[in-house]
Structures
1.
Amino acid sequence: MPEVAGTAAREEILRRIRDARVPAAAPVVRGYHREGPGGVELFAERVADYRAVVRVVTDVPEALSSLRGKDVVAPDDVPDEWLVDGVGWLREPLSIGELDRADGVLTGCAVAIADTGTIVLDGGVAQGRRALTLLPDYHVCVVRADQIAGSVPEALARLQPTRPLTFISGPSATSDIELNRVEGVHGPRVLEVLIVT
Amino acid sequence: MARNPVTWLGSPTFPKAARVALNDTQLRQNLRKATGTIRGRRAAAVAEMDDWEQLRVAGEQVKDDVLARLDTLLVQLEESVTARGGTVHWARDAEEANRIVLDLCRAENATEVVKVKSMATAEIGLNEALEAGGVHAVETDLAELIVQLGDDRPSHILVPAIHRNRAEIREIFQRRMGVEVSDEPADLAEAARTYLREKFLTTKVAISGANFAVADSGSIVVLESEGNGRMCLTLPDTLITVMGIEKLVPTWQDLEVFLQLLPRSSTAERMNPYTSVWTGVTPGDGPQRFHLVLIDNGRTATLQDSVGRQALRCIRCSACLNVCPVYERTGGQSYGSVYPGPIGAILTPQLVGDMHDPQAASLPFASSLCGACFEVCPVRIDIPSVLTHLRAEVVEAKGRTAESVAMAAAAWVFGSASRYEKAQKAGALARFLARDGRITSLPWPGSKWTSSRDVPAPPAQSFRAWWKENRCQK
Amino acid sequence: MALFATCLTDTFFPSTARAVVRLLERLGCSVDFPLEQTCCGQMHFNTGYRDHARPLARKYTDVFMGYDHVVAPSGSCAGMVREVHPTLGTSPPRTFELAEFLVDVLGVTDVGAWFPHRVTYHPTCHSLRMLGVGDKPLALLRAVKGLDLVELPDATHCCGFGGTFAVKNAETSTAMLADKMRCVLDTGAEVLSAGDNSCLMHIGGGLSRLRTGVRPVHLAEILASTEEDPWRATP
């Protein structure tokens, strides 16, 4: 019975759309910039504007010393060299409770956007499932210089839309009180971006 | 047909509601501060982009293309979502949509659900319908939470609690959460984090809206800031997304336009903290049951109107609210709808679809036609033109009124220069009302003017009389 | 060229229209005032009486057809003619707001005016957003001898007039007016100028009610004022 009702609604909505006879639209003119200048420097500056921690490094293991003494989640396929000594590494399978109790999470990313200071995760290599980068309060994200796209259009072109994507621009924040931005609500309150050159 | 809950039952007409709001000193102060802050920030964020106008044009064109091919694109979206393991539902009106969502919650034996801020679900009155059906919906966006805990109504599209300042929010939190908290925004945010954490970790069903749906890939996009969206979109077993049928973009590439337009227009950021994109169900990551509910609720009727349909381009950024001088003084609740401000003044009456409804019919007049809304709209909705278009519909629906008689008389006078000249001379007699060249009091309806403004006394000689006297004989 | 005085200025502010004539003739223009003109239909159109606006739009085209340029001392009426009349099925002749005409068509910013007063300028919404007049009026004012131009805070904010909005939503209109007046008073100006007598009637009506002593003066009257023939307040 509900199926039949659903079909009727679908048909009626589609019929009403057709009845509106909206004229065909002009082709979209993409007169905006599709490419941005990009670069490590601009990306680092834009990430920092969100009050995230940004460091340009050459040696990832050395840069991870800040994680010492913490319980840190690492997706299955992070490079072995990232799993430095002195850190309580937490590996999948992890329950929601275990993720919630973790001090931090270490991941890579799929793409970054210089123009907007954004990192994008797509569940690919060194990123894990989405909950991993959500529940721990401290997210360290390693970005290779060659992963930085200049602009939003360049970044989207590099991404596969059917993968689960998370665009991250700074730590969790809100503008809900007097329309002023305050960092730190439900997502990780500290975001540290390591740019590897 | 049931009444469309996009307007709140029993709301007075705009001028009456505005009168009450204008007397609320605290509200005036809160709105002035908040809108002033965001106006400046938006202007700076937009000034950074030397291709902003080109992006606006592209945004307008992509959305017009969506409206022109809406049937095809919706079917395409349905196919893509279904192919990826999601289920698509169609709802003609609010009642139908609410029943679908309630049935889905019941099928999961859910008595409590977590919600991501969503205009579509606010528009259809979903929370109330779920509550009536025994399902409690917990709002997780900070501003929505403030409204929900304060037993209040929203007053802004992006920031429903914009009418509240930090001291008022503190009071609501202390009363409803039973915690001691300061009025520092960071502490208030922390209180919300603690309050909602357990709900996020244990609730099995989440309900969201959608900022965009990509027709060709079936991807749904939600932009947010706090991470409450990510919590709802990834932790529960079941996700129900309620979306207006117009929120489509044809292709993934089209999103590049809106991911640039929306954050700068709404929160004045280069990019909002979190944007989630998901397509149907991803095994091993996130909800394993996904339902997409497509709602019409007045949209196809709006689509019939060649002028008014541009309101369906709206991406709910709320830039028009923040620059609107009327909104700044009256606040959002005066509009009696979840869609306030300039966009609300054109969208709400169209979704209601009944110009005989005095409240909805008062909304197109809630504007001085200053055009600030059109100037900032990222998808170039010509709100002033739609306002005057809808005013004409209201006038038509009302038929003969004292105003229409006066307007007809004025048009008749203006129709001929000789009639106009006679009227000018007759009007000049009003000089006897004046003292020191000004008139301070007129009978109704002129009293609406003279309650706060003087009127200049009509001069003894009109310009045309002067012209005839000085130039015509030459 | 022809002058479209607008019904409001013709009836209530004849000194503005006389100033336009004086100013344009001083700049070498031959000004005509076709007596058949009445109203552009803006009030009707903006209030929802499109059907009454249509014959007025037609009448406008009939009256002014044959002139190279039409000049109106009003941004909103010029905007009505240029932006709205075509949507009502007419093709009006080229119509300009005064400042546009002076700067764009005549190519002058210094019109040889003299106005020894402290002035602040309100750029009316339709001049600003519908016509895109920009800072042309300010350029004209800056070139006026003796004039002390002070910047109006929040200048681009609407004054709250909005035609019938001022009576249909009188309380909201008054709240907007109050803020505009506060900004005007903050400047310490003696004179508030604008390119539209409708907004000036609204703001000026408020300033008069409060006995602020600030006088509304149309841009045309400032630009027409010279040392030989200075502006005089009309009673």
2.
Amino acid sequence: MFNYTFHWNQALRALPQMLDGAVVTLQVAVLSMVIGVACAIALTVFRLSGSRILGGIAATWVEVARNTPALFQIYMAHFGLGNFGIHLSPYTALLVGIAFNNAGYLAENFRGALKAIPDTQARAGRSLGMTSLQAFRLIVLPQMLRVAFLPATNQMVWAILMTSLGVTVGMNTDLAGITQELNARSFRTFEFFALAAVIYYLIAKAVTLAARAFAWRMFRY
Amino acid sequence: MKTSVLAFGLVAATALTSPAHADKLDDIIASGTLRCAVVLDFPPMGSRDENNEPIGFDVDYCNDLAKALGVTAEIVETPFPERIPALMSGRVDVGVASTSDTLERAKTVGMTVPYFAFEMAVTANEKSGIKSFEDMKGKVVGATAGTYEAIALENQVKAWGEGEFRPYQTQADVFLALSQGQLDATVSTSTVAQSNVKGGKFPGISVVDKAPFDIDYVALFTNREEYGFLDYLNLFVNQQVRTGRYAELYEKWVGGEAPSLAVNGVYR
């Protein structure tokens, strides 16, 4: 029933263009992780702060980010805010959507990591004369990031794959956007999608291996 | 006696295996159903009425084709980017989906002679101050990804060397973005532009100019090697024009005089 002759040559000629797209994909993913980690740390601190309002913000963020599809989060960043006259470009909307999603998941990840660190650690810091902020920053936070690091690479891979949702908000410079456009011009859907899938796989794999190598250097003793 | 049983068996076996040699045209007639890929986000060619039933020029066209074949029509809703996967995976028999007959695409699918022709119009957000096609230079413009006008507009933006082009996945998203002011202007087929401006779902937009792109001829398409079916489809398009049905459908869905499907000085 599958009636198709593959034109691999045609797809391979578009490879340089697709690799340019892959660079943009990786760029969005990395930026979204940096912003995501920063927001997640803030959310974790909010939760620890004991303030009802800050805790409420953090809880709501995590609930929405984890329990709604990433597609809607990105779509809302573009068309939802657009309704109120706030115009984010496709690139920014995609970045904001993914960073929002990352922050939600990473905050939960950090909370788990925090639970793995005994209270006595912070107390020992305090007894050495540190303020509670210093004890958190110098003793708890580094240990928390260490525990959370490898699970966070999962989120990085997920962020790379989420960038493909950018096509729904008019993104045409990342790998998915470029692939979609090549496909629309020539109708060689299966070659271009297969090629894109291989590139996504290789990026995700490379990131996982790099993270593992980094963790091995940093956290072994 | 035994020989006749054997002969009967042979005849039966031949009769049973012969459908394997049938082409798509035979398959459709035998199955009693014609499955058409139709884009239902592209009024007046395809959309849904209040009862969520598919309506539009392409829907009627598919029904006419099914009637000619003596089978029942099945409308398979297919967004623009999914037209080819739907055909290749055997989910539909034919695309009645306002598909531009580009040479690039004809390497992949078999195209019929044109069954409809579109003119292109510029629709702008009223706040953008765009009054003509040239005013779009340097602005944020967009169109439905992969359509004829999207490809032409993106090339134009590249040629201008300034401004930004954004492809959205559906026609509705393009007009939503335009209405919100995320896009300053779009180029779409004049039929879609009129229908969306009059529809009232997208406030603050108006059709301001014609776009100087070539007329967009659209064809029915099916698998490249299905010559028998392609022949049938070509004759069907021809008959639709001859019998006046094309003009009738055009009047019903678009209004006015139907554009010529013929190119002067060309044999096909």
3.
Amino acid sequence: MKKLLVLFLGLLWVMGSTAVYGGVKNPDTFVLADIGSVDTLDPAKNYDVAGTHKIWTVYETLVFFDGPHTDKFVPVLATEVPTVENGGISPDGKTYTFKIRKGVKFHEGQELTPEDVVYSLKRAMICDPAGGPMWMLLEALTGYGSTRKGGKIIPGIFEKIDKAIEAKGEKVILHLPKPYPPLMGILCYSASCIINKKWAISKGCWDGDIRHAAKYNNPPEGKEPLQSVTNGTGPYKLKLWQTGNQFVFERFDGYWGPKPKIKTAIVKIVPEWSTRKLMLQNGDADRVHVGKPYVNEVKAMKGVKVYEVPQLAVTGAMFCQKINPTGNDNIGSGKLDGNGIPPDFFSDINVRKAFLHAYDRDTFKKEVLNNLCTMPPTPLVEGLAYYNKDIPVYDFDLNKAKEYMKKAWGGKVWKKGFKMVITYNTGREEREAAALMLKENIESLNPKFKIEVRNVEWKDYMVNIRAFKYPVFIIGWGADYPDPHNFMYPYMSSDGTYGKYIGYSNPEVDRLLKAGIENVDPQKRADAYNKLQQIWYKDALGIVLFQPKELWAYRDYVHGFVPNPMFPPAEEFFYRLWKE
Amino acid sequence: MTAYIIRRLFLLIFVLVGVSVLIFGILMTFSPERRAMAYVESPQQVKDIPQIIEQHGLNDPFYIQYFRWLKQIATGNLGWSFVAADTVWDAFWYYLPITLELNLFAIPLIIIIGIWLGTQAGIHKDTWIDHSTRIFAIIGWSLPTFLFALIMLMLFYGYFSVFPPGIISDHIQMFILKNPDKFKVYTGMYTIDGLLNGRLDITLDALRHLAMPVLTQVVVVVALLMRVMRSSMIEEISKDFVITARAKGADKKTVYFKHARKNALIPVVTVAGWLVAFSMEGSISVEIIFNRRGIGWWLAQSAISLDIPVLMGVCLFFGMVYVITNLAIDILYAAIDPRIRLT
């Protein structure tokens, strides 16, 4: 038995030792150890960053972000980026013309045509799966955010889609009902990737006849034909997808652009940090996903190069002004009796301002996030157009917080005290720290103030936010496209993802948001967004906690990384990288 | 005995129906909105919840949803797993070999080591052998699997660079991908497929990836079996027939190992059978730390994400495993103890 065991271990040891060697490991292979699994590879359906990365690896868009820029673009499948100056965009901002690149091959050998571009964009909008990303293109090209309303198809929507895009010779022309400034950013998104028409039809996608469009709308889960098959024009072909486990991409030798140096790119899904860290240390991974708590560990590692990249994202603590009292233990007794708060507790601006003055921005930045963040004054974060760093913020001042609490609810708050809950979603340590900081600081104002910090699983969290259950909820937002509209609308609109669920409705805000998105004149847009930022401060809608910076950790022999605030760590552009 | 087996297998149908109604009932306690959230990954998608509810009929009464699911099952469609991004059926056959391969090596080792160490501890009660196995059992049983797995990984991968996580090395993976004609996948288990393809290097590479997960699984699970075997052995060797046999000068080895141990195995078989079924669920910690995505990981992830088709399908499978394992245990009883008759 012992001999057998020794022999067995010895054999394994020998096998093991043969796989370990020095220098650059597997020079033409790049391994990313990541955390996010993917639902679908269909550009029309995917709406998460892990999926977007895989789609961008295989497919291409007409234009894309120029290196580190979020407001400059380079042509990809188009030959040039349309502008008003080059005649690609009409002076009224409603017509975009793209000349399509020639000599581009799909992975299965077909040649790219303008008809493929027209089909791809139309098919994606016709498909419009529930919970998918197609609202962006639909809003820009038809004026509607969906093909359905109340579960029924909007009459005439497919005809609008059909008329919005046309091919003329070597060109593709987009007709917009109204000017839509973020369009170019939306055309970079994975939902705007170009697929091959004949191949897609052969796989069961829309047949190209607009009269049959309804049949292909909102396919059931798992029934989208391009869920797991790909045929793009991108620099890599999908070689293997083991769901929840790994992706393997292989360089496409028929690629029209410069030949990438990395021949094989592997994305392994490794949820456990210790395992990822050891993989990076041993050179079995060339880059790993690094969670915020492990930043210092990675910075101390030898042979590892670290990049800090600010993100177009923001996290805030939102005050709900119309809390739903039904069966809601988050507001205690539901009255201002010292054992709870009334449902409209936060409708008094003094309460909101007191909470804002209780947030210690500097300590949070330094102690909690290791300075891996910026602190914008409003949800219109640094890196976006019309960002105004001079908008005032409510400085950390417990005396001011005390003064506002004394004024709140005609002095009743101070006299009676209150009890309530601050929530964040499970697993987000930085959000927990912010909640605890607010709790401690507010409780220090008056011994009658009691706050409980509670974590909720993300999916339950969003359901309860929509049910107006939380007095203060901490939540984040990441860019769909790099435009202020994509940030100010969710947070401030009376119909926004968060604005609606804090019970905030201000007709002036809604008017400014409309003006911001429907104007191409930069000055008019600047005016609108500047006013919105000032209203954010004046109305004290919530606490902007931080704008994150993310960490990219590579082996030091990996080169070619280009940081861009649009891309979170799930993204990786293999074609830019090389190892030496 | 055949009639007994057929009857037990027939009862399996009722067990599975019971399990499915129970699980479905529990899942229905979540609101339609909460179940719809299972399909949502980002705040941006939340606005489509009403459409998702309608699309999946999540507002329908319990019995309609249950019968819809039954009807679907009857047509051989176990549904779609959004965790696996695949049909439940296909995903199951992808994840099963990964868990099966781990258990193929771990379970025999658990049984052999558990019985052997338990026997030794029982025979040598209150000696250093007994004390050291007890300490080993306490460590194995009380040390969190997660922590033990992590220590193994840090030591043998982080420090010695010998036993890496994962299932197979990248260069072998690429070879298999590029040469589908040179390597045929028979079982989905590389240790076995390597041998069937005449590629010992692939088998050894797979073993190298399996060594630490198997060791972890063995160390944390073997303790229970060992302690049961020890108690049972002590009880048997103190019985009259053993004392008489020893008094008559029968060889100690023969008495202990041939007669006493056979009787002592009856309670051990129950525990071992249960452990086999339990191990099939896969140790979630082992699968996560050593990055082997098997059934355990899939089930845990599906439970967190409320991936209902997976929970239904996989729980039915485990229901079958438990029933069949119990049946096998009963049959084994009869083989070990001729006094037991299956009728």
4.
Amino acid sequence: MTKINIRKMQVNQEGTIASVKVGGELGRRIRDMGLVPGTFVKIQGRAPLYDPVALRVKGFTLTLRNNEADHIEVEIDG
Amino acid sequence: MNICVALGGNPNAGKTTLFNALTGSRQHVGNYPGVTVDRKEGRYVQNGHDMHIVDLPGTYSLTAYSVEEVVARDFLVNECPQVTINIVDASNLERNLYLTIQFLELGIPTCVALNMIDVARSRGIEVDHQKLTRLLGVPVIPIVARSGLGKQALMDAVARVAEAPRPQPLRVSYGRDLETAIQEMEPLISENAFLTALYPTRWIALKYLENDAQILEKGRSTDKAVSDQLEAVTRKVSAHIEETLETYPEAMIADHRYGFISSLLKQGILKECHDRNRLFLSDRIDKVLVNRFAGPLIMFGVLLALYQFVFTYSEVPVGWCESFFEWLADTISGQLADGLLKSLIVSGIIDGVGGVLGFVPLILFMFFGIAILEDSGYLARVAFMLDRVFQMFGLHGSSVMAYIVSGGIAGGCAVPGVMATRTLRSPKERIATLLTAPFMNCGAKLPVFALLIAAFFPAHQARMMFILTLISWSGALLAAKLLRLTVVKGPSTPFVMELPPYRLPTFRGLMIHTWERTWQYVKKAGTVILGISVLLWAAMTFPRMPDGQIETYAAQRSQIIAAAPSAVVAELEQAVGDNSLSADAARLKSELLVVQGRQSAEALRHSLAGRIGSTLEVVSRWAGFDWRTNIALLGGFAAKEVIVSTLGTAYSLGAVDVQGGDSLSARLVAEPGWRVLTAWSVIIFVMFYAPCFITVVCIARESSWRWGIFSMIFNTSLAFLLAVGIYQVGSALGY
């Protein structure tokens, strides 16, 4: 098990959220949308310029910018 | 029995569809007091219950994060609907129940509408709604909002909930640390009756732990002492949690809420017979539409198609509107004697109001097109693909829509463009887009550019037009950046956004969407515009020339007529069109027109607008504009098309219509004050100065009058600086 940042994840890579290290408005927004520790995520795709990133979470697709995703750490196999 | 019902839920859960299915045509749209979030209300009658239904803005949560959430929460608490219908997307249950839990924690009577059970079923998801009803303690009714299935059962349940006693607020367990803090806070709150008239005790404690700005502020102004104590408890537990667990109370609360939901779902509510990661149809479409290479190309194609559709197909109905107003003006002209009253009604009122109402078909087509893109889910993908580029200029991916509609592809219109910013959810990016969209080359600026290009750059007309489009885009983006660094400063709004699954829009939904937005335009813009157009008319009419001068011109005309042979005069009087005139009669006519033109130019110079134009020369000389250009630019505030016709009047050509600019081009080239440099300076000024007043009214309606006025001042100053820069540098270089 290794922890990596969403920015470094490849398309179609999967993992489980380990931590969301941000408070305030952004943190609240991220959590309200269901990105909490223990949630399974899969990188669905990236926009043409590699930013923002689209994630599959809890059965729906969510987008966020790379610099917002930087606060989220994901545990992956291998 | 009269029941007030609120309708709440996540965006894309099918709230609008259910609302339309329930209320049909019996609905009206307004704004929540003080904010620009739409408020829709309607009626539904069943079994003698008259239900008043209010559509809350779509939200993911009830924390005070966005305007929508604050509006939704305030409505639920302060206006106290008897029942709240919480619409939930059955195919996305876990995410949607997050809001449901918050409704229940707030202790408001709730009824859950489990929507899109057909979609869920097709994905292999089966929801046991009876079990969910038992676990949540509120009725859960399966429905399909699109077809109206389950509507009656839902409203029966609503009536039952309305008659039942108010439920106990739901208690979710938040773990030992937070529960200890809550136990410390609860007695403080209940003993002092601290905000308890409005909210449940436990809920207030939770909001303190969540650091909810709105509740904290309310608390401080209600009872400073209690509020301080509660904040102290919060600080203590925050410090403890941060030290031991490296997290925040609000994060723990969210974790526990999701934990509560997954424990609910694990009790056999969801039966999934398919792999979660099965490639749904939506994902397959996305593989193409958001593809790195094909995606942007398809997007440009789609935007171009939308643009073609709006501006090409609306041309015919816009033509009908124009003909109608021309007919009206002609008819009234025929009925009234020449004079001020006729001029006021025809030039002031009919032209002004006609200018606004003539747009209606265009606005209608525009909103129809946007509604398709929005309701189908494609607009969210456009924002996703373009966000990176727009983010560099402090804008949001969705801003592109407003730019393109406003004339990003030359020939649009800023009015629907400004109104298209509604699809932007982030307030700061929205203001920046709103203020810069009018920099685009709208259809009304084109005749002005066409005139000047034809006059001064006859060899490179197409290339010039393309260059002007590039200038307007760069200008708008750079100005947006400037605004985001100064007056609408602040970090960018998080781009945490849901990409909804693709959905076929319902025709009924499209119609309702289109109609309500168009009607708002007519209703709100109409009144103010009438006033301003009358005002501008007055400025260009009063004070009138002294009677002596009018008589001089009349005498000149009679002299010309007297000098001509009587047969020619008779021919001219009886003639209908231009083509049938003999050479003599045509010459007589043009001689008369010259006098007429000189008179109207003189009258314009004498009017208030003319005087302002002359006074402004002191300043406008820096940019190379003379008083006549000044009046034209002043008139351009009414509508940019007016610039060409006013230039025609001011350079005494009589009435010049937009198409007949040829002779005006020749006239301008011959005019000593005009050269290529002046043309550049005027073009740039026209591109960037104050938007036409219809646009200003729309900006004000979409934001506030403060921003409407700001846009006039900011744009005009910017345009003037640029024009002066061009003219001065150019002159110094010897052009």
